[in-house]
Every structure is written in structure tokens, then in C-alpha cells.
Amino acid sequence: MQIKILKFDDHINETGLVISLGFFDGMHIAHRTLLDKTLEIAKTQNLKSGIMTFSTHVLSFIKNQPFHHLTNLDEKAKKAQAMGFDYLYIFEVTKDLISLDYLTFIQRFLSCATIVVVGFDFTFGYRGLGNATTLQNSPNFKTIVLDEMVYETEKIGSTRIREALSNGDITLANHLLGYQFSISGTVISGKGRGKYLGFPTANIDYDGYFLPKSGVYATIVTVDGVEYESMANIGDNPTFSDKFVTFEVHIFRFSQSIYGKVVKVEFIEYIREEIKYRSTTDLIQQMHLDEKVVNEIFKKKRSL
Fold first, then answer.
1. Which stretches of the chain are DSSP H helices?
2. Could you tell me the fold of the domain covering 2-155?
3. What integer pLDDT is reported at residue 191 of this predicted model?
4. What is the rounded average pLDDT of the residues 29-42?
5. Average pLDDT, whole number, for the chain?
6. What CATH architecture is 181-303?
7. 257 in helix, strand or coil?
8. pLDDT of 168-199, one tens digit each?
9. Of 19, 58, 222, 279, whose CB has the highest number of CB atoms within 10 Å?
10. Could you tell me the residue ranges of all domains in the chain?
């Protein structure tokens, strides 16, 4: 798969493409339906397949607000490559790009397309005035629009997944994603408090990610391609009155030094909320109980 970064005044040299357009944060099951359709069409019509996406969330860029992603660009690229796409085009989001009217956007970037595949609610161009209908009205390519997908009467989308994660509903979030929500980040130095408590932890740099609800989770950590059962804590450590949120993982039956390594943490189940304890003794006692609960979860999973 070729990855190409597009600036606002670029042109695409390839022709005969089936293109799917979208931000695709999460690459969830509704996204996968659209992307699978793109690949299916490309295969049956002997065309090349491509994804067009954006370097960051356009609305957040316009509002000058930080955007916390479910999947970063690297993860999107890996998933796109695994699915079998030929091209991944990434628009560099700038003031010039978001100022392009939708007709210019179509002329400049979609002349390569034989077929364009989008979701029913896709918008693009200046003030989002371009949409599925304007694409369908273009005479230069055919546009296929996929209808809204729902689960239990509600739309499947990134917003709903964020709401589930905010509520600690990992089961729902993972179902809507079609895989286990994960955060990948570098292991950085912490305060060493976990080791002192008898539960050494890897402190993960979660920069850019949307964080689930504060509390304790059953997790799987991948280090150098090997998966380990673990439990994680997200929060500001109220027992110690910390003033910032950390993401720490205690890996079971693991003693390696992994500072500086990039690890992947997958969320399996929410265990409990973060609690302020009267003493470190009470905290340690609770952590042993958490460990038993998490081990029981993995024991049941292994027996399935």
C-alpha cells in the first residue's frame, strides 16, 4: 500500500480508482462496512482501491481545539494495509484546505476516481457544503452512498463509542469498534510508586488519545509482539492527591525493563471506579482484590 500526503493544491496522478472518503476515526464496524464495499467494487471491476482521509479532525482544527482520537494515523494505515487497500491519501488539514469550495475539491482530488464510496452523512469543502448529494451530481464518477448503520436502534459512530468509553462500557465500545479498543504509547518514567506498593507499573504516554473513564481495567499489553495479561489504572491517583491524569499498567508475571518502548494496551473489561483510600495499606489491599478479579476474567476467557 502506498501512502501519500496531499496538500491543498496537489493533484493525484493515479486514475481508475475506487475511493472511499471519510475521517474514519476508530475504523469501527460501520466504517469497515463502507471500506469492505470499496474493496469489493475494486476487485469485481478490476480497479485500484484507495482511502482518502484527513490528518486531523477538521471541525476541531476550525475551532482550534485539541482532538483526542480513537485511532491515530499510524493505526489507520496499518488497518487499511491489512484490509488490502492500494493507496492511502492523507489530506494535510490547513486553512487553505478547509477554504476550498466543494467543487474545487471534487475537481482537484476526485478526477482520479471511477467510483466514490461515502457514508450518508459525509460532508466536505468550505463550511461542509459538499455532501453525498453533491458527489452524486458530479458527472465524472459514480457515487455510492451507504445508509446509516444502527445497533440496538442507535447509530453506530465514533461519538457513540466515545460515550460508551466515557461510561466505562468497554463491552459496548468494543462491539461497535469490532475489535478491542487500544492505546499505543511509549513507556515513560513515573514516580515509581507502583513498585513501592508491590505492583510495578508501566506509565504510558497516551498523548492524543481519547481516554476511557477513570478507574481500573482488565487489559492486554503487547510488548515486542508478545501479549501479556495485565490490569490498568486511569486517573489522578486521589489517594496521593496527584494533579494530573496518568495511564499505568501492571503486567502480570513480567519483570523486564521496558522504558522507552512503544507498547499497545487493549481494554477488555472495566473493573471499578478510582477511589481515594485512607492509607496506602487500604490501597494495597484493594489492588490485591483487583488482581484477583482481573485474573478471574482472564481465566474465564481462556476456558472459552
1. 29-44, 58-63, 73-83, 95-98, 102-109, 132-136, 158-166, 170-177, 193-197, 280-303
2. Rossmann fold (3.40.50)
3. 64
4. 98
5. 92
6. Beta Barrel (2.40)
7. coil
8. 999 999 999 999 999 999 999 876 555 656 67
9. 19
10. 2-155, 181-303
